[in-house]
């Protein structure tokens, strides 16, 4: 009886949500459709940020509280490069590469020196995030930046139900799906991916079988950080880039991986979907307390499944 | 209740190897946390036969007695200096530096207690302080009659302390399910949720603007917000908090908590209710944070969402880490350094670049010494007096 309880509860919750969705559809189909699409694109953005976060955590047990700063770094550098070259795709590449490099440096200069000291590493990333936020404010000021992608990306797409919808947001959605698939392929079909998965399961065994674990760490950190920078340019184009966004996306990644399960890429996808949809629907239907919904989801998950929806017990 | 449990667990399996080892470990760790000299003789319920199993306590040797003596003298000197401080300091130094350090130190103390003795590093201590602060403003008197219940202070302040403690216990129930870095993440998320709640809610919390003109009660005809009285008020509360933390660390509860910090599985096997101990630690730390929160509201004479935002939450963690979490004194040392930096970083760099300075100092201390300033101090002392180091490693 007790074992079936969460399952039954989930089914009940699903039914209630379905009923609410039907009611909302009949009441105002366009608002519902728009919220759904906005929620999906926000979830896509959250997935892009959180997948890097969860990848790094899964392998290195390193809660990178500077992940939001990496997001912002990618956005700012991408913006500067885009301004100089006039190419949005170069901006995207620069955002990815610059943060990947920053991640590599962080791993190489700092975290390698304090391996196994989880708390100390976390505190260091916290200090880094404070310093970086202030440096960004110094260099790029307090303005809000928006990117200027090629017009064929920015078009308006006619869709059933909602009428017209921003083309770029659909691009973000597509990018998240592509990146998600690419990550899956990378982790499951390549040699380095295999090493990373082995490292997640048992670091010492991996090291004992002759793999240079430090190199695997460095690659993982670079990919994870690069994804944050990539998301920075994507998010900066879909929404905008400004001081304070780092904390917002850090928090989003935290909640997403807590809900989805630490260290699991599918978990990040599920968590991002839940949180993105909850935030958008909360904003549309209960404007004042949109954030509280996110929090409630987190508490519910912690109460019934502390390791996260897709997580495994450590 | 936990004390009874502790005694039961203590008396039964002490002959058994593992159990005795676990308890001894817990004690030795208490010792290395800087309480060695006093923990032995003062530890309640420590029968001689048990003390025999504890190598650090052994008979009260001359060096141990000397250490007790030295500690007592150090405490007395520090207290005397703190009491005399307003006589020599300007009102600015008394209020902005002295009182603010004591108040922030009080909130950081709650984190140092949780982190140092319980091994639980949270980010939500400022949230707990903020809940108590909002409670004292809402239940008591503030500038906006529509947002205040107008209770007298002797009702509003205890109610605020109770609410803060209760909130801390609830946070503890959630956080105790997790360990290590997970605790930081969950408490961060809780704290930010509270921040958004008070920022978006206008009917109760007055949103972005917050609540103004929250003042300490004019008791005995003294204006408790003028520098010198407020300094002594904060000093009294801070000293009480410090003494309570040091005392608690030597009670059966405190020792059990330190045992849980070092090895939760072993303590669970010994029959301790690990979660309950953790939640209780959260509640006790919450009481300290609440007291600090009430003082902080009086110090600022207002509270707003800015008082509980991410930056303020992180500041408390910075203070505790800067000072070092091995001993409650670290919280106050860290707070003093933090406040000094906050006030005088302007002279070193641009006013706008304060975060760069504090972040840099934080990173530096973290890289040099994981135990903060207290750790640096202890290492310096060990370098100057090799004898002290020998004692330290024996204890």
Summarize the structure.
Chain A is mainly α.
Features:
heterodimer; A: 314 residues; mainly alpha; two-stranded antiparallel sheet; 13 helices; 2 strands; 3% strand; globular; B: 395 residues; 17 helices; disordered N terminus; disordered C terminus
Task: Outline the structure in words.
With 314 residues, chain A is mainly α. Chain A contains 13 helices and two strands, in the order H-H-H-H-H-H-E-E-H-H-H-H-H-H-H. A two-stranded antiparallel sheet of chain A has the order 1-2. In chain A, a hairpin with a 3-residue loop joins strand 1 and strand 2 (163-166). The longest helix of chain A has 32 residues, at 29-60. In chain B, helix 10 (252-262) crosses helix 12, helix 13 crosses helix 14 (329-348) and helix 16 packs across helix 17. Chain B is globular, with a radius of gyration of 22 Å. The model of chain B is unreliable at 1-58 and 389-395 (pLDDT under 50). The A-B interface holds A 61, 63, 117-120, 122-124, 126-128, 130-131, 133-135, 137-138, 247, 251, 254-255, 258, 262, 288-289, 291-292, 294-295, 298-299, 302, 306 and B 121, 174, 177-178, 180-182, 184-186, 188-190, 192-193, 196-197, 200-201, 310, 314, 317-318, 321, 352-353, 355-356, 358-360, 362-363, 366-367, 370.
